[in-house]
């Protein structure tokens, strides 16, 4: 019997037992859908995090107070040793740096008339726009004069301005922060959150004003900062800038009580973490494929017992062991391949739902689809061998007597 005839016979047999065939495919369907959805979710998370890091600005270095080991230990208090004077020294003494923006932040209630909202209050300098690639939508940003005078001026994030003023023009109005009145001089363009801080829902004030009127001076060395963002002259000069900044701060601080993260370093860490997460999710989902393969083998073994008479008759009229073996293998492969295709469709549909309901731009991974369908077909072939061999080895006389 040729392959085409065996395929037709296998397809007719499966079609005659629709319920059993459907239940047999269920494990493969769930397995394929899970693998594709989990891989798509992992890749979506990776793209989302990379987008967040790219939004930090081009060629950016982040100088963070405390040693890396101190940060990793968690419960220890981070030293307050990084100050505005360090940022000013970097800006004037490091030639490979284009702009420097120190930042410090706290939480507080921002009020306009009878509208109150809790927001992040960010103290920074005029170079924030350059370093972090932000744009002003209306009005202006903070100026060096604002810093020198400790001016009570504020630039609002886009979402915060919309929530406080509800369509009114924000420029020229006054808001209150912790009981202090500030003049609104600008509104930022919407950009989204980065590294857990949503600047669209924040207020920006001069860092000198933050220190003198909001949080006070908490460091004995000067005006404390949470971190310093530095923009290098180019991508090629980032290593040079990091080296020069490290040497300068070592001289100023007398040791390594700080560490520097580059955008590339953060991207590498994010790729490693999300890649491992994607692999783990895919491995967990793959267990369903193995369970589905075992289900195929069990059902096929039951099918061999139920079709003993059919096998005996076919052998009695001349069917060879190979014919019987090929037919049962084809049945197993059809079940797993069809289940794989249905599972792929369900997995792709679930990814579209995820991309709509979450911030992840999840996409269907072609490699995940090919691997899932290929693995499901291989599983069908692997787990179909045992029942197929058992059917092929049945003695026709014994089969006809037991029927």
Describe the structure.
- Its main location: membrane.
- This is ABC transporter permease.
- The chain is of the alpha+beta class and 403 residues long.
- It has 2 domains: 3-52 and 269-402, no CATH class; 102-225, no CATH class.
- 58% of the residues lie in helices and 18% in strands.
- The chain has 14 helices and 12 strands.
- The protein has helices spanning 3-16, 18-54, 68-73, 84-93, 128-132, 144-149, 158-165, 207-214, 238-253, 263-306, 308-316, 321-357, 366-392, 396-402; strands at residues 60-65, 97-112, 115-124, 136-139, 153-156, 174-177, 180-188, 193-194, 197-198, 202-206, 227-232, 258-262.
- The strands form 2 sheets. The protein has a 6-stranded mixed barrel with strand order 2-3-10-5-7-6. A two-stranded antiparallel ribbon has the order 8-9.
- A hairpin with a 2-residue loop joins strand 8 (193-194) and strand 9 (197-198).
- The longest helix has 44 residues, at 263-306.
- It is elongated, with a radius of gyration of 33 Å.
């Amino acid at each position: 019997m040729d392959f085409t005839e065996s395929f037709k016979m296998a397809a007719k047999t499966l079609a005659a037992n629709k319920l059993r065939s459907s239940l047999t495919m269920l494990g493969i369907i769930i397995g394929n859908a899970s693998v594709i959805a989990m891989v798509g979710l992992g890749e979506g998370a990776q793209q989302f995090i990379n987008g967040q890091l790219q939004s930090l600005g081009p060629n950016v270095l982040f100088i963070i107070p405390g040693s890396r080991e101190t940060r990793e230990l968690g419960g220890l208090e981070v030293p307050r040793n990084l100050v505005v004077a360090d940022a000013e020294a970097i800006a004037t003494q490091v030639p490979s740096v284009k702009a420097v923006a120190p930042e410090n932040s706290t939480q507080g209630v921002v009020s306009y008339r009878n509208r109150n909202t809790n927001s992040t209050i960010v103290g920074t300098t005029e170079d924030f726009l350059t370093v972090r690639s932000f744009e002003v939508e209306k009005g202006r940003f903070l100026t060096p004069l604002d810093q020198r005078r400790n001016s009570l001026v504020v630039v609002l994030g886009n979402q915060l301005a919309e929530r406080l003023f509800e369509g009114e023009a924000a420029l020229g109005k006054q808001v209150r922060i912790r009981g202090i009145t500030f003049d609104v001089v600008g509104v930022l363009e919407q950009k989204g959150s980065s590294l857990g801080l949503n600047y669209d829902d924040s207020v920006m004030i001069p860092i000198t004003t933050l220190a003198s009127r909001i949080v006070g001076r908490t460091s004995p060395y000067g005006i404390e900062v949470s971190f310093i963002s530095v923009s290098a002259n180019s991508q090629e000069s980032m290593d040079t800038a990091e080296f020069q900044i490290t040497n300068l701060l070592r001289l100023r601080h007398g040791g390594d009580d700080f560490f520097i993260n580059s955008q590339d370093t953060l991207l590498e860490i994010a790729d490693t973490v999300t890649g491992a997460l994607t692999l783990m999710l895919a491995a967990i989902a793959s267990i369903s494929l193995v369970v589905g393969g075992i289900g195929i083998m069990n059902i096929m073994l039951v099918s061999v017992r139920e079709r003993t008479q059919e096998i005996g008759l076919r052998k009695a009229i001349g069917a060879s062991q190979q014919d019987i073996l090929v037919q049962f293998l084809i049945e197993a492969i059809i079940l797993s391949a069809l289940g794989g295709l249905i599972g792929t469709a369900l997995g792709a549909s679930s990814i579209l739902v995820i991309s709509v309901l979450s911030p992840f731009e999840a996409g269907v991974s072609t490699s995940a689809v090919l691997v899932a369908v290929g693995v499901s077909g291989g599983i069908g072939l692997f787990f179909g061998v045992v029942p197929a061999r058992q059917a092929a080895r049945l003695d026709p006389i014994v089969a006809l007597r037991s029927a």
